[in-house]
Amino acid sequence: MANRLDFLPTRLNAAPVVFRGMTGHEVGMMALGGLAAGLLPGAIGAWLLGAIAMVPTVAFACAGMALYFGGAVMRRLRRGRPAAWLYRSLQFRLARQGIRLWGGETLITRSGPYSRRRMRYQPGGRP
Predict the structure, then answer these.
(1) Average pLDDT of the chain, as a whole number
(2) Which residues contact 90 (CB under 8 A, 6 or more apart)?
(3) 17, 15, 14, 12: which is closest to 75 by C-alpha?
(4) Which of the two residues, 96 and 70, has the higher pLDDT score?
(5) Which helix (H) or strand (E) holds 81?
(6) Cβ-Cβ contacts under 8 Å for 94 (sequence gap 6 or more)
(7) Contacts of 39 (CB under 8 A, 6+ apart)
């Protein structure tokens, strides 16, 4: 943790808001998602029109739209919640589906009743 000062309040260590309520990492993820989503329509447009320049044009246009509209969605999802809530929520949803990424194996995904008392008969033990 060479880049982080642990004795400062947590708000000073938080990543700054860069664009439309998103941090730098979120802007990057949103832009890459938009680029990836725009590659297929760009390739189809390039094939139909015979202009190879359609691929990057449509990809960058989709990245811009993803940043503009995705920023509004991200702001609405994170309103009033801690900064890491959205990521942990996504991690938890993936872990419940059986996809354990980025430390998801440490999450408790079992649901059921818990008891504070000892059972009269414990399976595998003495009665």
Answers:
(1) 79
(2) none
(3) 17
(4) 70
(5) none
(6) 100, 101, 104
(7) 55, 58, 59
Question: Which residues on adjacent β-strands are paired with residue 19?
Answer: 22
pLDDT in tens, 48-59: 998 899 999 999
Cα gap 66→58, rounded to integer Å:
12
Residue entry with tokens 């609405």: 76
Task: Quote the longest CA-to-CA distance of the chain.
Answer: 79
CB under 8 A, 24+ apart: contacts of 90-97: none
Digit-coded pLDDT (tens) for 78-92? 787 777 777 788 787
In degrees rounded to 5, what are phi and psi of residue 11? -65, -25
| Length reported for the chain | 127
Amino acid at 120: R
pTM: 0.61
Residue carrying the six token digits 């708000």? 11
- Predicted pLDDT at 90: 79
